[in-house]
Write a structure and sequence with these properties.
Layout (H helix, E strand, L loop, with lengths): L1 H9 L3 E10 L2 E9 L5 E6 L5 E4 L3 E4 L11 E4 L4 E4 L8 H9 L2 E5 L3
Parallel strand pairs: 7-8
Antiparallel strand pairs: 1-2, 2-3, 4-5, 6-7
Length: 111
């Protein structure tokens, strides 16, 4: 509600996130997009989870607590179509190429 209110009061497009979201008993890393009227335009759940295991040094596995998203998220503005990813999604060029083919002119990857 805070992001919706901020978008509406400031008459801006607002990408909020990434934030934890629970849906159907699963936890996602999610970004939401709000238009200047305060309407929800898009919800993106991080597709590519970051897992790393450097023996004897570091282990971090998002997949132990988060579920991956499974859809592409793009939205239209008066200026252009925008594609949305989250953080580690940027490491996968195929996602950007899909957004390009969908007509996106800008890609945003909040981290």
């Amino acid at each position: 509600q805070l992001l919706q209110k901020a978008a509406r009061e400031n008459q801006i497009y607002l990408i909020g996130g990434s934030i934890p979201e629970t849906c159907d008993g699963k936890l996602y890393n999610t970004s939401t997009v709000w238009c200047p009227e305060g309407n929800l335009l898009a919800v993106h759940r991080k597709i590519h989870l970051f897992d790393i295991d450097v023996p004897g040094r570091m282990t971090f596995k998002e997949s132990e607590s988060l579920s991956p998203g499974n859809s592409f998220s793009a939205f239209d503005t008066p200026w252009c179509k925008i594609g949305l990813g989250i953080c580690y999604d940027i490491r996968f060029a195929e996602l950007g190429m899909i957004y390009r083919d969908m007509g996106c002119k800008v890609l945003v990857y909040p981290g």
